[in-house]
């Protein structure tokens, strides 16, 4: 541990540490090394910054700020963790950007320098969005000073504080200075998006204007709690968009159902892995994304894999990198794609489940969350670098590579995160289990295990794998659910948890 | 009471006033309409409308006789007492202020007078307000309003605007309003119940003990107050004497150099407004610049806190005001006077009406 000293002159010395490539190493905010970040926005940069905050406020209430040497990242996740939004600003975006330690001791290169904090998006936005700001503000200084340091302001006022603070200083015309100090919380959990890079990824590029024109046909009732979903069917030459009929208005009535199709030519890139692909997702966050992209005139880069994996939208400009992740949900009534048909590992249930899949095409899959809570507020939350496999801390959030459906067709469904829990069995599935005549629907765990043991020769390798996955996840609360699933709902295609041992692991959620 | 007294009252109502355009009057009344019960004190030269809140805040609108086309005040007092014509003579009654404003706006025409000030935000706000209130009137009235707006500058006759005549017969009588939407439009008669006046706070500002005096554009203060987080409950005004011997920067275009030196040399801002809220604090610093602070008189460091909710009561008055005079005396009593520009040519020659807010400071150990 580096010795840290706080002298009276400590606050005047900033040390810039060059990027060390170790941005994912853990840096707990409780270390004595109080960090601070100062960034200055000129009037031109303030506008897109405010628009970004506005977009973030549509996604979630809490704004997480993460500053590293190279970039400032703002991110948020909605309360149900079905949408995630991240803005990454290069240091060149700011007219001035310094990040340093208040300690005069040089921080070893092993300790990545970073500053984190969390606050309500609204409290920052209400300052910057005020109508007088656009007209009068010449430049805006943002500074984060982490707590537990005896800190002296430039003004010469002594303000000791144990709390981290975000100071927004607006330099207005006529020399008026408005200083807003906002208390920062320690981010309780870093939200980290999954990494989508899989083989069966579909890739679309479209300008925001085209999407906006199309979305105007799907009005969202303002002020109400309604959050309609749209169903997108990507076909060979066109995209069909329709409102999901289950969305109800405030009076509980079904709204107008609208359907329209968009030519694939509207897309600058139209690369759908397998046509048709049908996904559904909620509009609210998507509209916020479109509004942001349109206000800055930036194209949308849309990526998705299959109906249960989230949708990724990248919006990039010169010094800004923006990522939106929106959970998708399976559309009722949409047949599974052939690529997603489940090969069955448990031979004893195989026949029955094939029939099941055919008879109940609208089997429900729990949508994958767009972001996962990471219990450790770590340095690399926003780094998109895949982690080395050996890292223990990332284990719990790792998911196997989603393989291409051609050679490993069961791929997407082995993701434990969207396994239905036993309580989520559809009526049809329960009926199927009952109709199987195995009597397992009432079976408790011991009985079931005993029964499974009897089949050990048949399912040998799979069982072994299942046990492997059991131990892998056994230290995580989430994984108990997984185990329960395996025990309680053996007939479900999704519950196949075999993990071929040769396959490399890839982090779904990085820490 | 004899019949003759009654006849006298009928013949000579205590207060009778008429105006051809009620919008200015309504604007003044709205500036103090944060509490419902208002005391109207009529004198020969005009009347005041006073409201108070929490025994801390006292707001008074001074409405002078010359904003009216006709203004007549007859004292109820005996003629012998009336001879002491020194302004002490007055007549007070209480009235539900919101009801009065609603009555004046009964045609939805009281909100949008084209003000002589050119504050974009304000104009927009008023139009919106107007839109909200006269939905039922449809297109015709909207066009009418526009015409009135232009006619205003040609000194057009009263037929384009909503006129009003108010009569107050005396204690115990209702306030009678006769409102005509147009010269040939419908008219409405309203009678608003009046009450005996309750004594108000006696907040005397002591000009001799004034320790801070600032005159600034109302828009600066309005912006400052509107930017405050609603969670802030305490607002502190801090005044620091200007640096020795440095006169305020002369008005006009300040040179770039002056701006730079100002930024560095003056360590303490002359005026700082500080607010603490649930999510942090806000400070607004105003420099020594004639463009911002037209007048700044301060001999010693001044620091007094007020309840934010009281100070922000003034936002409505600020919206329609051009200049604000903010004074604090040695006991911390703050007096804010807002100059309310009159739209009409006639009264522009005379004194513009103004609204005054007086507010007691929060007790605190300094």
Automatic annotation (TrEMBL), chain A:
Signal peptide: none annotated. One of its GO terms (cellular component) is checkpoint clamp complex. Residues 349-362 have a biased composition (Basic and acidic residues). Residues 330-422, 486-511 are annotated as: Disordered. Residues 377-386 have a biased composition (Low complexity). Residues 330-347, 490-499 have a biased composition (Polar residues). Pfam families: Rad9 (PF04139). One of its GO terms (biological process) is DNA replication checkpoint signaling. InterPro entries: DNA_clamp_sf, Rad9/Ddc1. It comes from the Eukaryota. Gene3D superfamilies: 3.70.10.10. This is Cell cycle checkpoint control protein RAD9A. It comes from Pleurotus eryngii. The lineage of its organism: Eukaryota, Fungi, Dikarya, Basidiomycota, Agaricomycotina.
TrEMBL record, chain B:
Keywords: DNA damage, DNA repair, Nucleus. This is Rad1-domain-containing protein. PANTHER family: CELL CYCLE CHECKPOINT PROTEIN RAD1 (PTHR10870). It is found in: Nucleus. Residues 114-149, 238-267 are annotated as: Disordered. Belongs to the rad1 family. Its main location: nucleus. The keyword Isomerase does not apply. Residues 131-140 have a biased composition (Acidic residues). Pfam families: Rad1 (PF02144). GO terms for cellular component: checkpoint clamp complex. One of its GO terms (biological process) is DNA repair.
């Amino acid at each position: 541990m580096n010795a840290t000293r706080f002298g009276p002159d400590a606050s005047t010395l900033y040390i810039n540490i060059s990027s060390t490539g170790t941005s994912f190493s853990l840096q707990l905010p409780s270390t004595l090394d109080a960090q601070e970040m100062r960034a200055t926005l000129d009037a031109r940069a303030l506008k897109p910054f405010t628009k970004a905050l506005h977009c973030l406020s549509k996604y979630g209430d809490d704004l997480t700020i993460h500053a590293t040497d190279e970039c400032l990242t703002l991110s948020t996740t909605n309360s149900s963790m079905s949408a995630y939004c991240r803005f990454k600003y290069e240091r060149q975006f700011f007219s001035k950007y310094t990040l340093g330690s208040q300690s005069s001791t040089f921080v070893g290169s092993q300790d990545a320098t970073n500053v984190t904090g969390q606050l309500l998006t609204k409290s920052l936005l209400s300052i910057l969005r005020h109508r007088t700001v656009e007209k009068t503000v010449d430049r805006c200084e943002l500074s984060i000073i982490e707590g537990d340091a005896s800190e002296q302001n430039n003004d010469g006022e002594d303000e000791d504080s144990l709390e981290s603070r975000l100071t927004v200083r607006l330099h207005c015309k006529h020399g008026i200075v408005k200083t807003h100090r906002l208390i920062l919380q320690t981010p309780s959990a870093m939200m980290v998006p999954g990494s989508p890079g899989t083989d069966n990824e579909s890739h679309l590029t479209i300008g925001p204007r085209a999407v906006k024109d199309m979305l105007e046909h799907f009005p969202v009732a303002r002020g109400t709690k309604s959050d309609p979903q749209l169903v997108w069917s990507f076909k060979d030459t066109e995209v069909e968009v329709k409102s999901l009929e289950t969305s109800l208005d405030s009076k509980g009535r079904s709204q107008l159902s609208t359907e329209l199709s968009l030519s694939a030519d509207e897309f600058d890139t139209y690369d759908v892995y397998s046509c048709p692909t049908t996904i559904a997702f909620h509009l609210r966050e998507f509209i916020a994304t479109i509004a942001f992209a349109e206000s800055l005139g930036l194209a949308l880069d849309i990526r998705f894999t299959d109906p249960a994996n989230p949708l990724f939208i990248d919006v990039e400009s010169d010094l800004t990198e923006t990522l939106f992740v929106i959970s998708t949900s399976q559309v009722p009534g949409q047949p599974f794609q052939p690529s997603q048909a489940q090969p069955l590992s448990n031979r004893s249930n195989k026949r029955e489940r094939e029939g099941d899949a055919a008879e109940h095409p609208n089997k429900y899959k729990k949508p994958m969350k767009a972001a996962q809570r990471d219990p450790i507020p770590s340095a690399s939350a926003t780094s998109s670098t895949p982690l080395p496999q050996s890292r223990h801390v990332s284990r719990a959030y790792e998911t196997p590579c989603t393989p291409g459906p051609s050679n490993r067709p069961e791929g997407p469904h082995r993701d434990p995160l969207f396994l239905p829990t036993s309580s989520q069995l559809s009526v049809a599935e329960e009926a199927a289990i009952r109709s199987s005549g195995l009597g397992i629907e009432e079976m408790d765990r011991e009985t079931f295990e005993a029964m499974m043991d009897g089949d050990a020769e048949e399912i040998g390798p799979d069982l072994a794998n299942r046990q492997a996955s059991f131990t892998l996840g056994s230290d995580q609360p989430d994984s108990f659910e997984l185990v329960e699933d395996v025990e309680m709902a053996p007939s479900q295609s999704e519950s196949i948890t075999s993990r071929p041992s040769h396959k490399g692991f890839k982090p779904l959620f990085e820490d | 009471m004899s019949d003759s007294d009654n006849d006298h009252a009928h013949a000579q109502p205590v207060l009778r006033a008429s105006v051809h355009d009620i919008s200015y009057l309504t604007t003044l009344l709205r500036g103090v309409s944060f509490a419902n019960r208002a005391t109207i004190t009529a004198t020969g030269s005009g009347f005041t409308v006073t409201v108070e809140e929490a025994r801390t805040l006292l707001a008074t609108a001074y409405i002078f006789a010359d904003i009216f086309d006709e203004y007549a005040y007859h004292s109820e007092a005996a003629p012998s007492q009336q001879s002491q014509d020194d302004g002490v003579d007055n007549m007070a009654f209480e009235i539900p202020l919101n009801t009065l404003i609603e009555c004046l706006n009964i045609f939805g025409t009281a909100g949008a007078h084209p003000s002589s000030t050119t504050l974009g935000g304000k104009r927009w706000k008023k139009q919106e307000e107007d839109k909200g209130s006269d939905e039922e009137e449809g297109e015709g009235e909207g066009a009418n309003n526009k015409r009135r707006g232009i006619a205003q500058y040609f000194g057009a006759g009263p037929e384009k605007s909503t006129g009003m005549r108010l009569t107050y017969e005396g204690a115990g009588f209702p306030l009678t309003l006769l409102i005509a939407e147009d010269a040939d439009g419908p008219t409405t008669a309203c009678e608003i119940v009046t009450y005996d006046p309750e004594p108000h706070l006696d907040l005397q500002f002591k000009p001799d003990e004034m320790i801070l005096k600032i005159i600034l554009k109302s828009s600066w203060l309005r912006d400052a107050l509107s930017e405050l987080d609603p969670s802030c409950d305490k607002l502190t005004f801090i005044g620091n004497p200007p640096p020795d011997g440095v006169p305020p920067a002369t008005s006009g275009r300040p040179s770039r150099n002056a701006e730079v030196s100002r930024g560095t040399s003056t360590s303490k801002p002359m005026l700082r407004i500080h607010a603490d809220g649930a999510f942090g604090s806000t400070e607004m610093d105003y420099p020594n610049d004639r463009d911002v602070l037209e007048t700044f008189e301060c001999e010693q460091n001044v620091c007094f806190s007020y309840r934010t909710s009281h100070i922000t009561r003034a936002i409505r008055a600020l919206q329609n005001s051009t200049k604000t005079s903010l004074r604090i005396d040695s006991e911390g009593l703050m007096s804010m006077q807002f100059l309310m520009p009159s739209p009409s040519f006639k009264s522009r020659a005379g004194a513009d009406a103004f609204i005054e807010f007086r507010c007691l400071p929060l007790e605190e150990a300094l």
